[in-house]
Design brief:
- By secondary structure, this protein is of the alpha+beta class.
- It is built from 4 helices and 7 strands; from the N terminus they run αααββββββαβ.
- The protein has helices at residues 7-23, 30-33, 36-57, 115-127, and strands at 60-67, 72-76, 79-83, 90-92, 98-104, 107-112, 138-141.
- The protein is elongated, with a radius of gyration of 25 Å.
- The termini are far apart.
């Protein structure tokens, strides 16, 4: 993967370097000659490239736990069937590039190569029944702490 700078940014940086040279001042480095908005994207581009490499080589996964009486998950072909206490079962279709597994009835594993897509899919599944603070029931990430509230008093 090669990342080439945009031509308009390079041209603007080179013009700034030439202007400093004409004034007889110290020549700025290429990085100093770029505007601040272009420099702010360096870390973002580096992190995204690193995430792509990590995803292709190792992959990403998120584990969700279903907590509550009668809350179950099972695979139905490539779709995930969730029983979450509604009057109907929730059928969730996996997006392209995402693999869903239900090794236990109360556990769902979302995996794939794209970090953002894995997180987004896990968040969509969690959205069906987020953990509630009174009984702690719902779908939560593995290891997530749900802060409990006290019920109403007499």
């Amino acid at each position: 993967m090669s990342v080439m700078p945009r031509e308009d940014l390079v041209k603007a940086a080179n013009e700034r370097i030439e202007a400093e040279k004409a004034r007889g001042r110290r020549l700025p480095t290429f990085a100093e000659a770029l505007d601040a908005r272009a420099r702010t994207q360096w870390g973002t581009a580096r992190a995204r490239a690193a995430n792509i490499v990590e995803g292709v080589s190792n992959g990403y996964s998120k584990t969700l736990e279903l907590v509550g009486v009668g809350y179950r998950a099972q695979m139905q072909g490539t779709d995930l069937k969730l029983s979450l206490g509604f009057s109907h079962d929730v059928i969730f279709k996996a997006p392209e590039g995402i693999k869903l597994e239900a090794p236990k009835p109360t556990e769902v594993i979302v995996s794939g190569a794209d970090k953002q897509a894995v997180g987004q899919t896990a968040a969509k599944i969690r959205e069906f029944r987020p953990p509630e603070p009174y009984k702690g029931k719902g779908i939560r990430y593995q290891g997530e702490y749900v802060r409990r509230k006290e019920g109403k008093k007499k």
